[in-house]
Amino acid sequence: MNTRRASAVNRRTLLAGVGASAVAAAVPLRRGLAASTLKVGVLLPRSGPQAQLGIECQIGADLALPILKTEGYPDLEFMLGDTETKVDVARAQCEKLIDAGAHAIIGCFDSGQTMAAAQVCEQKNVPLVVNIAAVPKLTELGYKWVFRNFPTGPMIVGDAFKNQKRLFGATGATPKTVALLHVNDTFGSSLAGALFALTPKFKMPYKIVEKIPYDPYGRDFSAEVRKVKAAKPDALWTVSRLNDAIAITKELVRQRVELMGILSTGPGWYDNAYLKATGKFGDDVVNLIPWYDENKPMTQKLKAAFAKAHPDLLMTTNQSFSFDAVLIAADAFKRAESTKNTALQTALRQTDITNNVTLGKGIRFNEKGQVPYVPCGAVQNRGGKHVVLLPQEAATGKPIWPMRPWRER
Questions:
Q1: Where in the chain is the domain with CATH 3.40.50.2300?
Q2: Whole-angstrom Cα distance, residue 72 to residue 359?
Q3: How far is CA 48 from CA 52, 83, 143, 242, in A?
Q4: CATH superfamily, region 31-151+295-375
Q5: Quick count: other Cβ atoms within 10 Å of Cβ 48?
Q6: Phi and psi (nearest 5°) for 106?
Q7: What is the pLDDT of residues 120-178, one digit of tens each?
Q8: Where would a tag sit more exposed on the chain, N or C end, judged by fewer CB atoms within 10 A?
Q9: CB neighbourhood size of 101 (10 A)
Protein backbone atom coordinates (compact mmCIF):
# COMPACT_ATOMS: atom_id res chain seq x y z
CA MET A 1 0.00 0.00 0.00
CA ASN A 2 1.22 3.46 -0.86
CA THR A 3 0.50 6.76 0.85
CA ARG A 4 0.46 10.14 -0.81
CA ARG A 5 0.45 13.57 0.82
CA ALA A 6 -0.91 16.83 -0.57
CA SER A 7 1.54 17.48 -3.38
CA ALA A 8 1.47 17.59 -7.18
CA VAL A 9 2.28 14.29 -8.90
CA ASN A 10 3.36 13.92 -12.51
CA ARG A 11 2.39 11.01 -14.77
CA ARG A 12 5.73 9.23 -14.38
CA THR A 13 5.54 9.41 -10.60
CA LEU A 14 1.94 8.21 -10.66
CA LEU A 15 2.66 5.19 -12.81
CA ALA A 16 5.75 4.32 -10.82
CA GLY A 17 3.82 4.49 -7.57
CA VAL A 18 0.99 2.40 -8.90
CA GLY A 19 3.30 -0.13 -10.46
CA ALA A 20 5.36 -0.60 -7.32
CA SER A 21 3.72 -0.15 -3.98
CA ALA A 22 0.12 0.91 -4.66
CA VAL A 23 -0.92 -2.56 -5.70
CA ALA A 24 0.50 -4.25 -2.63
CA ALA A 25 -1.66 -5.29 0.30
CA ALA A 26 -2.37 -2.54 2.79
CA VAL A 27 -0.04 -2.31 5.76
CA PRO A 28 -0.47 -0.17 8.88
CA LEU A 29 0.58 3.46 8.54
CA ARG A 30 3.26 4.78 10.83
CA ARG A 31 1.77 6.07 14.05
CA GLY A 32 2.12 9.62 15.28
CA LEU A 33 0.72 11.37 12.21
CA ALA A 34 -0.92 14.67 12.97
CA ALA A 35 -4.56 14.36 13.92
CA SER A 36 -5.25 17.14 11.42
CA THR A 37 -4.70 14.70 8.51
CA LEU A 38 -7.53 12.66 7.06
CA LYS A 39 -6.41 9.27 5.75
CA VAL A 40 -8.36 8.40 2.62
CA GLY A 41 -8.21 4.98 0.99
CA VAL A 42 -8.39 5.44 -2.79
CA LEU A 43 -9.55 2.08 -4.14
CA LEU A 44 -9.37 1.69 -7.93
CA PRO A 45 -8.61 -0.93 -10.61
CA ARG A 46 -4.87 -0.36 -11.08
CA SER A 47 -4.23 -3.69 -12.77
CA GLY A 48 -6.34 -6.01 -14.90
CA PRO A 49 -8.56 -5.01 -17.85
CA GLN A 50 -9.65 -1.67 -16.32
CA ALA A 51 -6.19 -0.61 -15.16
CA GLN A 52 -5.87 2.37 -17.50
CA LEU A 53 -9.20 3.75 -16.34
CA GLY A 54 -8.18 3.42 -12.70
CA ILE A 55 -4.91 5.20 -13.41
CA GLU A 56 -6.79 8.08 -15.04
CA CYS A 57 -9.09 8.33 -12.03
CA GLN A 58 -6.04 8.53 -9.76
CA ILE A 59 -4.74 11.48 -11.78
CA GLY A 60 -7.89 13.43 -10.92
CA ALA A 61 -7.54 12.53 -7.25
CA ASP A 62 -3.87 13.52 -7.16
CA LEU A 63 -4.48 16.87 -8.81
CA ALA A 64 -7.15 17.62 -6.22
CA LEU A 65 -4.65 17.67 -3.36
CA PRO A 66 -2.65 20.82 -4.25
CA ILE A 67 -5.69 22.62 -5.66
CA LEU A 68 -7.79 22.05 -2.56
CA LYS A 69 -4.85 23.09 -0.38
CA THR A 70 -4.91 26.51 -2.04
CA GLU A 71 -8.66 26.66 -1.44
CA GLY A 72 -8.15 26.34 2.31
CA TYR A 73 -9.03 22.70 2.76
CA PRO A 74 -7.13 20.60 5.33
CA ASP A 75 -4.56 17.92 4.57
CA LEU A 76 -5.53 14.55 3.17
CA GLU A 77 -3.30 11.54 2.93
CA PHE A 78 -4.01 8.89 0.31
CA MET A 79 -3.67 5.17 0.93
CA LEU A 80 -3.79 3.43 -2.43
CA GLY A 81 -5.52 0.09 -3.00
CA ASP A 82 -5.83 -2.01 -6.15
CA THR A 83 -9.01 -3.95 -6.99
CA GLU A 84 -7.22 -5.76 -9.84
CA THR A 85 -10.55 -5.31 -11.68
CA LYS A 86 -12.04 -8.06 -9.51
CA VAL A 87 -15.01 -7.83 -7.17
CA ASP A 88 -13.57 -10.18 -4.53
CA VAL A 89 -10.25 -8.32 -4.51
CA ALA A 90 -12.09 -4.99 -4.16
CA ARG A 91 -13.76 -6.34 -1.03
CA ALA A 92 -10.49 -7.63 0.44
CA GLN A 93 -8.54 -4.47 -0.37
CA CYS A 94 -11.23 -2.27 1.14
CA GLU A 95 -11.02 -4.24 4.38
CA LYS A 96 -7.22 -3.92 4.41
CA LEU A 97 -7.32 -0.17 3.83
CA ILE A 98 -9.74 0.30 6.72
CA ASP A 99 -7.77 -2.02 8.98
CA ALA A 100 -4.65 0.00 8.11
CA GLY A 101 -6.28 3.18 9.39
CA ALA A 102 -8.26 4.73 6.53
CA HIS A 103 -10.88 7.14 7.84
CA ALA A 104 -12.80 7.12 4.54
CA ILE A 105 -12.74 5.28 1.22
CA ILE A 106 -13.03 6.73 -2.31
CA GLY A 107 -13.81 4.41 -5.24
CA CYS A 108 -14.15 2.24 -7.18
CA PHE A 109 -15.01 3.25 -10.80
CA ASP A 110 -16.67 -0.10 -11.53
CA SER A 111 -20.22 -0.73 -10.23
CA GLY A 112 -19.64 -4.33 -9.14
CA GLN A 113 -16.42 -3.49 -7.32
CA THR A 114 -18.03 -0.45 -5.70
CA MET A 115 -20.92 -2.58 -4.42
CA ALA A 116 -18.40 -4.90 -2.77
CA ALA A 117 -16.60 -1.95 -1.14
CA ALA A 118 -19.93 -0.50 0.00
CA GLN A 119 -20.77 -3.69 1.86
CA VAL A 120 -17.44 -3.54 3.71
CA CYS A 121 -17.79 0.16 4.57
CA GLU A 122 -21.31 -0.43 5.83
CA GLN A 123 -20.14 -3.27 8.08
CA LYS A 124 -17.21 -1.27 9.45
CA ASN A 125 -19.03 2.11 9.73
CA VAL A 126 -16.57 3.92 7.46
CA PRO A 127 -17.75 6.46 4.85
CA LEU A 128 -17.51 5.49 1.18
CA VAL A 129 -17.44 8.42 -1.24
CA VAL A 130 -18.20 7.05 -4.70
CA ASN A 131 -16.27 8.58 -7.57
CA ILE A 132 -17.81 6.58 -10.44
CA ALA A 133 -20.45 3.82 -10.28
CA ALA A 134 -23.96 3.92 -11.72
CA VAL A 135 -25.75 0.81 -10.40
CA PRO A 136 -28.97 2.11 -8.77
CA LYS A 137 -29.09 -0.26 -5.79
CA LEU A 138 -25.87 1.24 -4.42
CA THR A 139 -28.01 3.98 -2.86
CA GLU A 140 -31.28 2.05 -2.68
CA LEU A 141 -30.38 -0.59 -0.09
CA GLY A 142 -30.58 1.67 2.94
CA TYR A 143 -26.82 2.05 3.41
CA LYS A 144 -25.89 4.80 5.88
CA TRP A 145 -22.21 5.16 4.97
CA VAL A 146 -22.37 5.50 1.17
CA PHE A 147 -22.34 8.89 -0.57
CA ARG A 148 -22.51 9.23 -4.36
CA ASN A 149 -22.15 12.25 -6.63
CA PHE A 150 -22.57 10.26 -9.85
CA PRO A 151 -25.74 9.57 -11.84
CA THR A 152 -27.54 6.26 -11.54
CA GLY A 153 -28.24 4.15 -14.61
CA PRO A 154 -31.78 5.56 -15.01
CA MET A 155 -30.43 9.13 -14.74
CA ILE A 156 -27.84 8.42 -17.46
CA VAL A 157 -30.39 6.79 -19.75
CA GLY A 158 -33.03 9.48 -19.13
CA ASP A 159 -30.61 12.26 -20.03
CA ALA A 160 -29.39 10.22 -23.00
CA PHE A 161 -32.94 10.12 -24.38
CA LYS A 162 -33.36 13.87 -23.87
CA ASN A 163 -30.02 14.72 -25.47
CA GLN A 164 -30.66 12.35 -28.38
CA LYS A 165 -33.90 14.19 -29.17
CA ARG A 166 -32.05 17.51 -29.03
CA LEU A 167 -29.33 16.15 -31.30
CA PHE A 168 -31.81 14.77 -33.83
CA GLY A 169 -33.82 17.99 -33.78
CA ALA A 170 -30.77 20.21 -34.26
CA THR A 171 -29.46 18.20 -37.23
CA GLY A 172 -32.70 17.07 -38.84
CA ALA A 173 -31.47 13.47 -38.95
CA THR A 174 -33.45 10.98 -36.88
CA PRO A 175 -32.76 7.23 -36.82
CA LYS A 176 -35.79 4.98 -37.19
CA THR A 177 -34.06 1.86 -35.86
CA VAL A 178 -31.37 1.32 -33.22
CA ALA A 179 -29.39 -1.73 -32.11
CA LEU A 180 -28.18 -1.97 -28.50
CA LEU A 181 -24.76 -3.55 -27.88
CA HIS A 182 -23.88 -3.77 -24.19
CA VAL A 183 -21.52 -5.42 -21.72
CA ASN A 184 -23.18 -7.99 -19.50
CA ASP A 185 -21.51 -6.84 -16.27
CA THR A 186 -23.26 -5.02 -13.40
CA PHE A 187 -22.98 -1.62 -15.07
CA GLY A 188 -23.97 -2.69 -18.58
CA SER A 189 -26.91 -4.81 -17.49
CA SER A 190 -28.14 -2.01 -15.24
CA LEU A 191 -28.11 0.53 -18.07
CA ALA A 192 -29.70 -1.89 -20.53
CA GLY A 193 -32.50 -2.58 -18.06
CA ALA A 194 -33.07 1.14 -17.51
CA LEU A 195 -33.08 1.75 -21.26
CA PHE A 196 -35.89 -0.70 -21.94
CA ALA A 197 -37.85 0.37 -18.87
CA LEU A 198 -37.72 4.07 -19.80
CA THR A 199 -38.15 3.89 -23.59
CA PRO A 200 -41.99 4.08 -23.44
CA LYS A 201 -41.89 7.08 -21.10
CA PHE A 202 -39.71 9.15 -23.41
CA LYS A 203 -41.56 8.17 -26.62
CA MET A 204 -38.41 7.87 -28.67
CA PRO A 205 -38.78 8.15 -32.46
CA TYR A 206 -36.98 4.88 -33.14
CA LYS A 207 -37.45 1.18 -32.54
CA ILE A 208 -34.80 -0.96 -30.84
CA VAL A 209 -34.45 -3.81 -33.30
CA GLU A 210 -31.70 -5.84 -31.62
CA LYS A 211 -30.28 -6.26 -28.11
CA ILE A 212 -26.81 -7.83 -28.01
CA PRO A 213 -25.16 -8.48 -24.62
CA TYR A 214 -21.52 -9.56 -24.55
CA ASP A 215 -18.63 -10.42 -22.25
CA PRO A 216 -16.54 -7.23 -21.76
CA TYR A 217 -13.36 -9.26 -21.39
CA GLY A 218 -13.71 -11.02 -24.73
CA ARG A 219 -11.13 -10.46 -27.46
CA ASP A 220 -13.10 -11.27 -30.60
CA PHE A 221 -16.29 -9.29 -31.21
CA SER A 222 -16.82 -10.34 -34.82
CA ALA A 223 -19.94 -12.36 -33.98
CA GLU A 224 -21.54 -9.47 -32.09
CA VAL A 225 -20.79 -7.05 -34.90
CA ARG A 226 -22.23 -9.50 -37.44
CA LYS A 227 -25.46 -9.42 -35.42
CA VAL A 228 -25.44 -5.62 -35.58
CA LYS A 229 -24.87 -5.72 -39.34
CA ALA A 230 -27.65 -8.27 -39.86
CA ALA A 231 -30.13 -6.09 -37.91
CA LYS A 232 -29.39 -3.16 -40.30
CA PRO A 233 -30.01 -0.43 -37.69
CA ASP A 234 -29.73 3.23 -38.52
CA ALA A 235 -27.74 3.84 -35.33
CA LEU A 236 -25.85 1.81 -32.76
CA TRP A 237 -26.22 2.40 -29.00
CA THR A 238 -23.31 1.02 -27.00
CA VAL A 239 -22.57 0.44 -23.32
CA SER A 240 -18.96 -0.64 -23.20
CA ARG A 241 -15.61 -0.61 -21.45
CA LEU A 242 -12.27 0.52 -22.88
CA ASN A 243 -10.73 -2.54 -24.50
CA ASP A 244 -13.99 -3.79 -25.96
CA ALA A 245 -14.85 -0.34 -27.32
CA ILE A 246 -11.56 -0.32 -29.24
CA ALA A 247 -12.09 -3.86 -30.56
CA ILE A 248 -15.73 -3.20 -31.54
CA THR A 249 -14.79 -0.05 -33.46
CA LYS A 250 -12.13 -1.88 -35.45
CA GLU A 251 -14.57 -4.70 -36.18
CA LEU A 252 -17.26 -2.26 -37.36
CA VAL A 253 -14.75 -0.80 -39.81
CA ARG A 254 -13.52 -4.25 -40.93
CA GLN A 255 -17.05 -5.47 -41.61
CA ARG A 256 -17.98 -2.12 -43.18
CA VAL A 257 -21.00 -1.55 -40.97
CA GLU A 258 -22.19 1.90 -42.04
CA LEU A 259 -24.32 3.75 -39.50
CA MET A 260 -26.02 7.09 -39.07
CA GLY A 261 -24.15 7.28 -35.80
CA ILE A 262 -22.75 5.60 -32.70
CA LEU A 263 -24.26 6.65 -29.37
CA SER A 264 -22.35 5.64 -26.25
CA THR A 265 -23.51 5.69 -22.63
CA GLY A 266 -20.48 4.17 -21.03
CA PRO A 267 -16.75 4.51 -20.60
CA GLY A 268 -14.35 3.46 -23.30
CA TRP A 269 -15.49 5.44 -26.30
CA TYR A 270 -14.30 8.83 -24.98
CA ASP A 271 -11.16 7.69 -23.17
CA ASN A 272 -7.65 8.79 -24.11
CA ALA A 273 -6.51 5.26 -24.94
CA TYR A 274 -9.55 4.74 -27.20
CA LEU A 275 -8.89 7.92 -29.18
CA LYS A 276 -5.23 6.99 -29.66
CA ALA A 277 -5.96 3.38 -30.61
CA THR A 278 -8.74 4.11 -33.13
CA GLY A 279 -7.48 7.34 -34.70
CA LYS A 280 -9.80 8.75 -37.36
CA PHE A 281 -12.21 5.84 -36.90
CA GLY A 282 -12.91 6.97 -33.34
CA ASP A 283 -14.23 10.31 -34.58
CA ASP A 284 -17.92 11.31 -34.65
CA VAL A 285 -18.96 8.99 -31.78
CA VAL A 286 -21.45 10.84 -29.54
CA ASN A 287 -20.90 10.07 -25.87
CA LEU A 288 -24.01 10.64 -23.72
CA ILE A 289 -22.25 10.69 -20.40
CA PRO A 290 -21.58 12.49 -17.10
CA TRP A 291 -19.09 15.27 -17.79
CA TYR A 292 -17.54 18.41 -16.34
CA ASP A 293 -18.78 22.00 -16.52
CA GLU A 294 -16.33 24.23 -18.39
CA ASN A 295 -17.78 27.36 -16.78
CA LYS A 296 -17.13 26.56 -13.12
CA PRO A 297 -14.11 28.26 -11.49
CA MET A 298 -12.95 24.97 -9.96
CA THR A 299 -13.03 23.33 -13.38
CA GLN A 300 -10.74 26.00 -14.75
CA LYS A 301 -8.24 25.33 -11.98
CA LEU A 302 -8.37 21.59 -12.57
CA LYS A 303 -8.03 21.94 -16.35
CA ALA A 304 -5.02 24.21 -16.00
CA ALA A 305 -3.31 21.86 -13.57
CA PHE A 306 -4.19 18.85 -15.71
CA ALA A 307 -2.85 20.43 -18.92
CA LYS A 308 0.41 21.30 -17.19
CA ALA A 309 0.91 17.88 -15.59
CA HIS A 310 -0.40 15.76 -18.47
CA PRO A 311 -0.14 17.65 -21.79
CA ASP A 312 -0.47 14.36 -23.70
CA LEU A 313 -3.92 13.56 -22.27
CA LEU A 314 -7.46 14.93 -22.44
CA MET A 315 -9.42 15.50 -19.26
CA THR A 316 -12.49 13.28 -19.03
CA THR A 317 -15.19 12.00 -16.68
CA ASN A 318 -12.55 9.87 -14.97
CA GLN A 319 -10.56 12.80 -13.62
CA SER A 320 -13.45 15.18 -12.98
CA PHE A 321 -15.59 12.86 -10.85
CA SER A 322 -12.54 11.58 -8.98
CA PHE A 323 -11.57 15.19 -8.24
CA ASP A 324 -15.06 15.89 -6.92
CA ALA A 325 -14.93 12.78 -4.72
CA VAL A 326 -11.77 14.09 -3.06
CA LEU A 327 -13.41 17.52 -2.74
CA ILE A 328 -16.40 15.93 -0.98
CA ALA A 329 -14.14 14.15 1.52
CA ALA A 330 -12.03 17.25 2.16
CA ASP A 331 -15.09 19.46 2.60
CA ALA A 332 -16.64 17.06 5.11
CA PHE A 333 -13.37 16.80 7.05
CA LYS A 334 -13.03 20.58 7.16
CA ARG A 335 -16.49 20.99 8.65
CA ALA A 336 -16.30 17.97 10.96
CA GLU A 337 -12.93 19.06 12.37
CA SER A 338 -12.47 15.41 13.29
CA THR A 339 -11.49 12.07 11.80
CA LYS A 340 -14.16 10.32 13.90
CA ASN A 341 -16.42 8.23 11.69
CA THR A 342 -19.73 9.56 13.02
CA ALA A 343 -18.54 13.15 12.74
CA LEU A 344 -17.54 12.57 9.11
CA GLN A 345 -20.84 10.84 8.40
CA THR A 346 -22.82 13.77 9.79
CA ALA A 347 -20.73 16.27 7.82
CA LEU A 348 -21.18 14.29 4.61
CA ARG A 349 -24.94 14.30 5.08
CA GLN A 350 -24.81 18.09 5.38
CA THR A 351 -22.68 18.59 2.25
CA ASP A 352 -23.55 21.72 0.26
CA ILE A 353 -20.87 22.36 -2.39
CA THR A 354 -21.47 24.70 -5.31
CA ASN A 355 -17.94 25.27 -6.63
CA ASN A 356 -17.20 21.78 -7.88
CA VAL A 357 -16.15 20.46 -11.30
CA THR A 358 -18.89 18.26 -12.70
CA LEU A 359 -22.13 19.26 -14.43
CA GLY A 360 -24.96 20.25 -12.13
CA LYS A 361 -25.89 22.95 -9.66
CA GLY A 362 -23.80 21.49 -6.87
CA ILE A 363 -23.41 18.57 -4.50
CA ARG A 364 -26.08 17.90 -1.89
CA PHE A 365 -26.98 14.39 -0.78
CA ASN A 366 -30.49 13.17 -0.06
CA GLU A 367 -31.40 10.81 2.76
CA LYS A 368 -30.15 7.88 0.66
CA GLY A 369 -26.68 9.38 0.20
CA GLN A 370 -27.36 10.16 -3.47
CA VAL A 371 -27.20 13.53 -5.22
CA PRO A 372 -30.79 13.49 -6.56
CA TYR A 373 -29.92 14.64 -10.07
CA VAL A 374 -26.50 14.60 -11.71
CA PRO A 375 -26.83 15.86 -15.32
CA CYS A 376 -25.17 14.23 -18.31
CA GLY A 377 -23.86 15.90 -21.45
CA ALA A 378 -23.35 14.97 -25.10
CA VAL A 379 -19.67 14.92 -26.03
CA GLN A 380 -18.46 14.10 -29.55
CA ASN A 381 -15.04 12.76 -30.53
CA ARG A 382 -13.48 15.06 -33.09
CA GLY A 383 -9.93 14.85 -34.39
CA GLY A 384 -8.69 13.09 -31.28
CA LYS A 385 -10.31 15.68 -29.01
CA HIS A 386 -13.68 16.25 -27.33
CA VAL A 387 -16.37 18.67 -28.49
CA VAL A 388 -19.17 19.32 -25.99
CA LEU A 389 -22.51 19.46 -27.83
CA LEU A 390 -24.92 19.56 -24.87
CA PRO A 391 -26.00 21.06 -22.56
CA GLN A 392 -26.16 24.20 -24.67
CA GLU A 393 -24.66 26.42 -21.97
CA ALA A 394 -21.54 24.24 -21.88
CA ALA A 395 -21.29 23.58 -25.64
CA THR A 396 -17.94 24.06 -27.38
CA GLY A 397 -19.03 23.15 -30.91
CA LYS A 398 -21.75 21.85 -33.23
CA PRO A 399 -22.41 18.20 -34.05
CA ILE A 400 -21.37 16.14 -37.03
CA TRP A 401 -24.47 13.99 -37.46
CA PRO A 402 -24.93 11.72 -39.33
CA MET A 403 -21.40 10.45 -38.79
CA ARG A 404 -19.05 10.32 -41.78
CA PRO A 405 -18.75 6.98 -43.65
CA TRP A 406 -15.64 4.96 -42.77
CA ARG A 407 -14.19 5.35 -46.27
CA GLU A 408 -14.44 9.13 -46.11
CA ARG A 409 -12.40 9.53 -42.94
A1: 31-151+295-375, 154-291+377-408
A2: 23
A3: 9, 9, 29, 12
A4: Response regulator (3.40.50.2300)
A5: 15
A6: -120, 135
A7: 999 999 999 999 999 999 999 999 999 999 999 999 999 999 999 999 999 999 999 99
A8: C
A9: 19
